[in-house]
Amino acid sequence: MVKVVFDEAFYRVYSSEPAAAPGRIESVVNEVRGVFEFVGCEPASESDVLLVHSPDHVKSVKGLDDVYPLALLAVGGAIKAAKMALEGEPAFALIRPPGHHASRSHSWGFCYFNNVAIAVAKMLSLKRVERVLIIDFDLHFGDGTANIFSGSNNVEYFHLPHGPRERQLSSLKAFLNAKEGYDMLAVSAGFDRHKEDWGGMLMTGDYYEIGKALGEFSLKKCGGAIFAALEGGYNHAVLGKNVRAFLEGLQNASRWW
Asked: Helix, strand, or coil here: 140?
């Protein structure tokens, strides 16, 4: 069964940014609690963060008193989800701040630490995996993730291209069909492509199809090891529904039980 990694600290409003807006995380919890099992998480260590980020960048985030503790907890949530994935439990880290715009020494776009990248680097450092595929279906390109793993022989990054919604889905499936040989699938799950969000492109049902496609890929080519972490998605009226659709698609592709 798909599980949701969460801590009530993520309700905290830590800045005036859209990703930190009051009610955003609640909109997801209200949709998925009772449908999927929730599990807790612990903050990551500074040494975990340093697997990906420079000491100067960590120091700069540490200076943001309202952000730093929550950013460590978000990283910890992603690491917990990655570990669960490798134990045969697909997991979704319902966390914030998001992370895919955080590179080694710089961050922007509501991001501070790159949650998914650190979780992947942690699994690599523990020698739990050798090759990882990262799929990012956020509206925005995850420049931080791409930069961190640029030139890596162990990690491949793919950002879902823009275009008509049918083309986006077919592009994803075509890409996945051509790939194999990975130990884990990591997902930067942004929901701001929705027709009622910033991107104005996808329908709620499209997130179900994305989840199902990724779940099927993980089962066929990654031994079922898949985790995802929340990135964007800013319309509270539809965010929870979109996350639920994605998780239901992932679960319906899965046969972990």
From this structure: coil
Q: How many domains is the chain built from?
A: 1
Please list the active-site residues.
Answer: 101
CATH number at residue 109: 3.40.800.20
pLDDT by residue for the chain (257 residues), tens only, comes to 899 999 999 999 999 999 999 999 999 999 999 999 999 999 999 999 999 999 999 999 999 999 999 999 999 999 999 999 999 999 999 999 999 999 999 999 999 999 999 999 999 999 999 999 999 999 999 999 999 999 999 999 999 999 999 999 999 999 999 999 999 999 999 999 999 999 999 999 999 999 999 999 999 999 999 999 999 999 999 999 999 999 999 999 865 43
- The residue segments making up the domain with residue 75 are 3-253
